[in-house]
Amino acid sequence: VQTIGILGGGQLGRMLSVAASRLGLRCHIYEPGAAPAGDVAHAVTNASYEDEAALRAFAESVDVITYEFENVPTSALDLLESIRPIRPNRRALAVSQDRLTEKTFLNEIGLATAPFADVPTEGDLGGAIDRIGRPSILKTRRMGYDGKGQVRVGDGPAEWTGAPSVLEGFVDFSAEISVIVARGADGQVAAFDPGLNVHREGILRTTTVPCGLAGAVTTDAVLIAARIVSALDYIGVMGVELFVTPRGLIVNEIAPRVHNSGHWTQAGCAVDQFEQHIRAVAGLPLGDGKRYADVVMENLIGDDLGRVPDLLRAPNTQVHLYGKGAPRPGRKMGHVNRITG
Ligand code: ATP
Ligand code: MG
Ligand code: MG
Hints:
With about 350 residues, the chain is α+β, with helices and mostly antiparallel strands. It has 3 domains: about 5-85, 3-Layer(aba) Sandwich (Rossmann fold), CATH 3.40.50; about 115-170, Dna Ligase, domain 1 (2-Layer Sandwich); about 175-340, D-amino Acid Aminotransferase, Chain A, domain 1. It is built from 10 helices and 17 strands. The strands form 3 sheets. Strands 9, 10, 11, 12, 13, 14, 15, 16 and 17 form a 9-stranded antiparallel sheet that branches. Helix 1 (about 10-20) packs across helix 9 (about 275-280), helix 2 crosses helix 3 (about 75-80) and helix 4 crosses helix 5. The radius of gyration is 20 Å and the shape is globular. The mean pLDDT is about 95. One magnesium ion (MG) binds near residues 145 and 253. It catalyses: 5-amino-1-(5-phospho-beta-D-ribosyl)imidazole + hydrogencarbonate + ATP = 5-carboxyamino-1-(5-phospho-D-ribosyl)imidazole + ADP + phosphate + 2 H(+). Keywords: ATP-binding, Ligase, Nucleotide-binding, Purine biosynthesis. Its EC number is 6.3.4.18. This is N5-carboxyaminoimidazole ribonucleotide synthase. Belongs to the PurK/PurT family.
């Protein structure tokens, strides 16, 4: 493999391409928007997932295709896959694109999820609430991220999301953690240390390692993540989000790509999640992701960007800016990795 195609030109695609460049590999980025985040070479911009000629030319210009965005339309994937391999594979994409298939798959391989019910239309909501109870959370099956497309169902009348959804029982968790796990083309599995995640308004704010939980919990989390990637015959990095409860770990969701809660690995490990993903999809051996520092990763969201002058002067602090232009409320503009020990 010499050239890797990346579907999506956001910050994840950009950090993947930087990691690839360090290994002497080239990246071509396929970005539907007007510009990729920051300054990335070889980007096809304003590129539609309906444009067969553009998709074909892109696929032919690379050796393998990966993605930083899991909601690529099926028709585009079919065309791309007829020309070059897609890693992680189509099954991983299909399972994680849709919260209903995702939770069904997780239960099938013996993992616990929140109790859930299919809510195809608004008319099905009442029956679903009768089965799952309150409080609960209604989530669109597809396309949601950063808490978008979600409605809390409390005591009052329930709002409709406007699209086919799942209703999830509310999990009374004591903590949220995630495992960034990798599986190589040779089937080898490696996981980074689980991180403790804090969300505000549905958006990840901080990830802290070590997560401070008992070894039995973190070991269980890693074993769960390994079970998921093995069951999917997965190649690449996956983010697995988990709720910690008194009755054990519950899988919230999986992301078939590098994950925001894995950004701490840039400051904490010799090989970070981006390089690990590139190694896997390029068919190279996985690297050593052992953690050698304590790190707090903080997202810079919207106006947090104003803190950058101070952050640039802060000790033990690695600043990452995505080059997205003017900040907007709720938009991830960058992140900082603070080495705390
Ligand atoms: P991401 O940006 O991580 O993809 P998302 O939009 O897919 O987010 P979820 O991860 O489903 O959203 O939910 C966002 C947050 O809302 C969770 O991290 C958790 O804090 C809370 N949450 C989601 N589902 C539940 C649940 N069933 N019970 C309790 N809290 C929940
Ligand atoms: Mg999600
Ligand atoms: Mg999530």
